[in-house]
Amino acid sequence: MAPNPGSPRKLRIGYVMQTGSPDLSNPSGPQMHIYETIHGLQRLGHQVRTVAIQNEQIVWSDDLKCWSPVKFGLSQMRAFRLFESALRRIQTELRLPFLGLFDSFRFADACYQTLKGYDILYERHGWMGYGSVIASRWLHVPLVEELNGNIIKEIESKGFKLSALQWKISVWITRRTFISASQVVVVSRALKGQIVKQLGLPEEHVSVVLNGADLTLFNQHRDSDGLRNKYHLDNKPMVIFVSSFEPWHGVDLLVTSFKSVISRFPEARLVLVGDGSMRDAVFAQIEKLGLQEFIILTGKLPHAQVAEMTGLSDIAVAPYPYKHTEIVGTPLKLIEYMAAGKAIVASTAPIHEIIEDGITGIRVSPADPEALAEGINRLLSDDELRGRLSANAQKESLNYSWEHVSRQLSELLIGISH
Known about the structure:
By secondary structure, this protein is an alpha/beta fold. It folds into two domains: about 10-210 and about 400-415, Rossmann fold (3-Layer(aba) Sandwich), CATH 3.40.50; about 215-400, Rossmann fold (3-Layer(aba) Sandwich), CATH 3.40.50. It has helices at about 30-45, 80-95, 100-115, 130-140, 150-155, 165-180, 190-200, 215-220, 225-230, 250-265, 280-290, 305-310, 330-340, 370-380, 385-395, 400-415; strands at about 10-15, 45-55, 55-60, 70, 120-125, 145, 185, 205-210, 240, 270-275, 295-300, 315-320, 345, 360-365. The strands form two sheets. An eight-stranded mixed β-sheet has the order 4-3-2-1-5-6-7-8, with helices on both faces. A six-stranded parallel β-sheet has the order 11-10-9-12-13-14, with helices on both faces. Strand 5, helix 4 and strand 6 (about 145) form a beta-alpha-beta unit. It is globular. The relative contact order is 0.12.
């Protein structure tokens, strides 16, 4: 049967991740975004093969379940390995800055061997990884780079310090990678403005495709009695935070703010869902402030349980520890809060641009625990406002389904591959 000339073209897409690839067997925000992106494209009829580093090995998969080791060509030849060993020794002795050259070349080799015959490469961009640029040239296919935040600022916020030279090298490599790509996809308008300005990219070279959420999972009605009993919540007002315990998510600010909340609403409870590098510090902070009775930590939960816990809450919070625009994106948790029909308190930082103050949530000053507490207290004291914001947020969430995201991305990739 001849193909329907009006039907969208189906692509063979190589989805690649050289650096910063999350453990795809462990539920997390990045893992969910990757799964939904790949499965969404597959549901639209595209063939997607993933090449990524998992457990320190480069592997590939067509279904994100069964993984196979990649084959290598030039990078596994004895002459290449001897050359690499010699140069790495010189680099160590002379304390030369890290360039990621051999790592990128090896990843490019893996992509070349695994993705022959594919139409386009799509990379979830990571710091100092440019093997996809090399692979796209060897394969003679276009490359699209996806950027989910300001990577340099995220690295700095974790405590890693870059020398002035390493900073310049990082920025130069990032810019060259983006310029070499046919298009850069970012997850927020604020992030587009940032990289256009900082890296000097043409505006037309950067497309915005916002994140999505599993609306069905988060907007369904649930029997909450069992969970409320499990966490001894009874009918107490519940405030929820869902995210990783990392510096840029501001969980420490929220804990500080809750001291002021319970001074006015002593029956309120804060539920923190997640885990991360700040876990021990958060435990210590809760004990220091004497908030053990008022704050519940669930640890990391499966996504379905996150939806259940979010459904129990009265208010959902998205704090932010920076006063400017260092880290920008479209947090998945915001869309999930909206889909669940929650009254949201979010900072005025651009990372929360999808929340409209007084319409779909309340915006408060970033890096300000007292402002955060005032926003929570305002919603706890005003049932009508809380209900109105909840209804508006759930209605607005319909614009952020994963199906909508997949169609946008599919159209973009088809246009580039022509």
